[in-house]
Amino acid sequence: MLLASPQPSGTGTVSTRTRCIPATAASNFRASAVSDLSCIAVSTSHPIRALLDEQSSAVALASVMTEFSLRPVATVLGGRTEIYEDNWADVAAIIRLDADQFEPDALTGVAEYSHLEVVFLFDQLDPARIQTGLRHPRNNPDWPLVGVFAHRGPYRPNRLAISRCRLDRVDGLELHVRGLDAIDGTPVLDIKPYTAEFAPTEPTHQPRWATELMRDYY
After folding, report:
1. How confident is the model at residue 19 (pLDDT cuts 50, 70, 90)?
2. Cystine design at 113: which of 6, 38, 69, 193 (Cβ 3.0–4.6 Å)?
């Protein structure tokens, strides 16, 4: 569906700004011509505009729940070959971009940054082990029961991880890094340079158990 709203133009006439929502959303309004059209234009003053806005919001929400297919952009090489926690600071690894998708110029400018943020998949975690309810972090009974979105463990609905690591150098399609808590063969979904301005601008706080958990992580 094409939603059109009049906008003043520089010439004193009225131009139209449009945005599209699926035509299926229009069927609820029983407009006689909609069934045979992929789009319908509605002015901001039209009496069904409010209903259209409500419907488009519902469609937008539904689209958030859509399943997506992601193609890894790189693979982690080296580093640890087994999953275990702590002491990641000096673990060296390589993030190698997929040569079928990228040329070395995809990394132009990256060497000017000291750190990277890497999004990767816990691909070796059996989806059957995902836990969305309460659990003790690292199954430590001394730490409180918390929900899945209150810890950074791998047992997550989409098995996604985001980590920050130190960049040592760039070589062709390879990023040589340290402190990346991903094991050999891990698929990487995205790589971003870390910029200080994305850090919180105000003081942060966290529960005591999280500080204890992370004490020896790096």
Report:
1. very low
2. 193
